[in-house]
Amino acid sequence: MPKAPVSPMAPPASFKWSRRVFLLLLSAFVLTPLFVMISSSMKPLQDVQGAFSWIPSSFTLQPYVDIWTTVPLGDYFVNSLIVSVSATALSVVIAIFAAYAVSRYRFRGRKLFTVTVLSTQMFPGILFLLPLFLIFVNIGNSTGIALLGSRGGLILTYLTFSLPFSIWMLVGYFDSIPRDLDEAAAVDGCGPLRTLLKIVVPAAVPGIVAVSVYAFMTAWGEVLFASVMTNQTTRTLAVGLQGYATQNNVYWNQVMAASLVVSIPVVAGFLLLQRYLVAGLTAGAVK
Amino acid sequence: MRQRLRRLRHPRGALPYLLLLPALALELLIHLVPMVVGIVMSFKQLTQFFIRDWSAAPWTGLGNYRMAVDFSAPVGQSLLNSFWTTCCFTILSVGLSWLLGTAAAIYMQDAFRGRGILRALFLVPYALPVYAAVITWSFMFQRDTGLINHVLVDQLHLMDEKPFWLIGDNSFTALVVVSVWKSWPFAFLTLMAGLQNIPRELYEASSMDGAGVWQQIRKITLPSLRPVNQVLVLVLFLWTFNDFNTPYVLFGKSAPEAADLISIHIYQSSFVTWNFGVGSAMSVLLLLFLLLVTAVYLFLTSRRRDADA
């Protein structure tokens, strides 16, 4: 979003210089780990076992080959992908319905619902980790539905993590879509669900994209529940990545290569769609 | 047509509830029921013998709570230590993240060459999966092979001996640095969105009156950001106070005492001893503390906003 300078006067030199210095230092702070990640992922093993060097003694892409065999990274990748995509899809659909109800209807309990859902966002994960663990164990024992250690259990859990924020952001978005459109659709004979699908959803695409990115990132990066609720076959990247570091020999070049590989899908997606996220946040904040 | 009209009128009362049902059911199943179960658990003597059938565990009244807050015994003492560590950590991390985010957002409010690239770069730490980011930092903090000691000792000669960063007292510093690196972009992103809502005319009018940039920041930008800041600081506080991922990935299963954050403390005392009763009691105490802080914070900040208005 290009923007003309806010003030007609050019900012004074003191402002410009402090801006340069500040942004330079901040960029160095942000860039250093990214540089370490990239450069170390292309180092031979002896480079990462001795004193640190900024530049690899020789460039190699071998770590990118080895990461798939040292630990079953491919399996973890598939697990993370299945869990994150399912959790995102489900949570976005559920959030769209809920946000539509909150935005378009006045009903008893509307305020209570909003407050309850939002306040679950603030509760510490550790608070429901233990009970949820026990509930899943007991559901497994009494019904035979194995939620613990299964992808299903993790999907259910993750989708509720992004639900509150998604609902809140979509309500803000839906509110900004003129109701006249709904009414016109109703006159044309559309029921409420058709109106939602044909009118409101297409107009709210940027908000829905933003919410999807957020939900995917949340699921892709979660560690706490993944560490307790997965087993050898359902392990996700969040837990699996530690496999390189628990052996006697830490293959730091492979750790860095694997970190880079697992980051690319989310970082690329996020950077491509970040302006939707900013727009979504703005819509939420206006409310 | 008639059928359609009937359908529209008939479920009208129930429709919003039907739309809410999936969200409500899931929130109940994953959040609210476990919370109630957690509160029940905290009153039970829930040791490893009862994990498979926790309803059989004997009641112990306030026993778990007494154990958690008995500050003369080891369990209570370490909980208190963890609580103070978490408080210091949260204040430092939230303060620094907010400061960096605010400064960056304000400096980047006006267009200049390279702004788009910088903005994308600054958002990378937020987009990066937590474990990938933290694992990279843990490599940088390695004593013998890490970048930090290489720069401090080998290149700048600030110290004679290479310190340990991931064990001992230095681990607190390491934790704060990683946490700030990870969370300041969220402050930046939110404040950038907030800045877009400030009407341009305010700046134009004030510069007609001869106000300089610094004055505009103090008189227009910062006050306009107050509603955004009210939510932002609260959210940052809650996330940071409850942070589990950063210490868990940075230190592995055993966090050093100087960096023993409350979430990891509860996790360890629950899953190492399998005493879920005491773990739940600690979680409930944590929740009560967070509710109290949130209530006081909202009360104070809202009152100030009303007074300003």
Automatic annotation (TrEMBL), chain A:
Pfam families documented for this protein: BPD_transp_1 (PF00528)
GO biological process, one term: transmembrane transport
InterPro entries for this protein: BP-dep_ABC_trans_perm, MetI-like, MetI-like_sf
Keyword terms, alphabetized: Cell membrane, Membrane, Transmembrane, Transmembrane helix, Transport
Domain ABC transmembrane type-1, first and last residues per copy: 77-273
Annotated TM spans: 77-100, 112-135, 155-174, 195-217, 251-273
SUPFAM superfamilies in the cross-refs: MetI-like (SSF161098)
Lineage of producing organism: Bacteria, Bacillati, Actinomycetota, Actinomycetes, Kitasatosporales
Cellular component terms per the entry's GO annotation: plasma membrane
Classification via PROSITE patterns: ABC_TM1
Family: Belongs to the binding-protein-dependent transport system permease family.
Family annotation (PANTHER family): INNER MEMBRANE ABC TRANSPORTER PERMEASE PROTEIN YCJP, MALTOSE TRANSPORT SYSTEM PERMEASE-RELATED
Name used for this protein in its record: ABC transporter permease
CDD domains the UniProt entry points to: TM_PBP2 (cd06261)
Domain of life the protein comes from: Bacteria
Main location: membrane
Subcellular location: Cell membrane
Membrane topology: Multi-pass membrane protein
Coiled-coil segments: none
TrEMBL record, chain B:
Classification via SUPFAM superfamilies: MetI-like (SSF161098)
Transmembrane segments: 20-43, 83-108, 120-140, 172-195, 224-241, 276-300
InterPro entries recorded: ABC_transporter_permease, MetI-like, MetI-like_sf
Superkingdom, natural source: Bacteria
Topology versus the membrane: Multi-pass membrane protein
CDD domains to which the protein is assigned, alphabetical: TM_PBP2 (cd06261)
Subcellular location: Cell membrane
Keywords from the UniProt entry: Cell membrane, Membrane, Transmembrane, Transmembrane helix, Transport
GO CC annotation: plasma membrane
This protein's record includes keyword Membrane: yes
Presence of the UniProt keyword Kinase in the record: no
GO biological process, one term: transmembrane transport
Domain ABC transmembrane type-1, first and last residues per copy: 83-297
Main location: membrane
Family from the record: Belongs to the binding-protein-dependent transport system permease family.
Full protein name: ABC transporter permease
Species: Kitasatospora indigofera
